User: What shape does this take?
Amino acid sequence: MLKRIKMRKRTLLIVAIFFAVAATAFAQRGGRGQGGQRPDPKVQAKTTADTWQEKFGLSDEQRTKVYDLLIVSSEKQTAKMTELRASGTMDREAMTAAMAKMQEDQDKELKKIFSATQWTAYEVWKKENPPMQGRRGGGGQE
Assistant: This one.
């Protein structure tokens, strides 16, 4: 009887350790089920272009131009982030400045694609939907 109780305690302890390790691993991945990886840029660009077409009334031609721009912007962003990480400094201010510059460049191109009415609607939408960076919680940052 005593042997059975010890065996059950040991089994319970092993199961508890397993769940603790699994929970830690899941939390480190960001809970996305993809290992915390960014979504495929082409899928993300398609989703965004489709959403904007509906929201801002883009023509099919405008939607295609927006999609192409989003792909190019994503590639530039990935290359710049890789370059900054490779430099070894990981300077947050430099990264933030680089991202802001790329967003500004992207907006200049979008303004050429959108009509005046669409551009106004886009600017309103941007104010209502700020980027997710810095709003993930943890560490008391807002």
